[in-house]
Amino acid sequence: MEQQLANLLEAQPIIAAVRDEQGLNQALEAPVDAIFLLDAMLNNLKKRVRRIEEHGKLAFVHIEMVAGLSKDQAALEFLKEEIAPTGVITTKPSLVQSAKNLGLVTIQRLFILDSLSLQTGLRIIQSHHPDFIEVMPGVIPKAITEMKAHCQVPIIAGGMIKTKEEIIELLRVGAVGVSTSRAELWDL
User: Fold this and answer.
1) pTM confidence score
2) Who contacts 161 (Cβ-Cβ below 8 Å, separation ≥6)?
3) CATH fold for the domain made of 2-185
4) Where are the domains of the chain?
5) Each residue's pLDDT tens digit in the chain (188 positions)?
C-alpha cells in the first residue's frame, strides 16, 4: 500500500485535505488520488472512508483530529478493524510503529519551525521509520530541502499552501506530494 501511494503521488502529487462534508464532496469529484480526513467525528468516520474508497481514492485519517477517538494502540486497532483506512496521519511518533505493525500506511506530521525542530524531526524519522513525513508548514521549501538531504523518507508538504506556484516550487525542491485544503488547487 505504501508503494501504491508513492506511485499515485508520482502521477498526481496533490492530496485533498478535507475538514467537513462539503470539502469531502468536492474532493471526491476532484482529480486527486488521496484524501486526508481532518476534523472528523467517530460517528461519521466509517461512512467518509467508505465514500472515499468507492470513488477509487486512498483515505488517510488524522488520528488526533477524530473527535471521540483516543490516541493510543486501542484506537489504532479500532481504526484498522472497523474503519479500515489506507493509513493514518499522526504527530505522535509513538503511534507510528504500532500503526505500521497493523498494516496501516503511516504519515508522520512534523512542524518545522526552527533548526531545533528540524533536528528533532530528523531524530523522530530515524527512530520511528514512518512511511511518509508531512512537513508543516509546507510553504517553507528550505525545510523540505534540508529534510530531503538528511533522510530517505518521502516528503509531503502541507499547511498554508495557497498558490499553484507554491506547489510547483515544493515539488521542485523534492516533495513527493502536497496536501492542501484549497479545492481550487486540487485539479492542477
Assistant:
1) 0.90
2) 138, 139, 167, 170, 178, 179, 180, 182, 185
3) TIM Barrel (3.20.20)
4) 2-185
5) 677 778 878 888 999 999 999 999 999 999 999 999 998 999 999 999 999 999 999 999 999 999 999 999 999 999 999 999 999 999 999 999 999 999 999 999 999 888 888 899 999 999 999 999 999 887 788 889 988 999 999 999 998 898 999 999 999 999 999 999 999 999 98
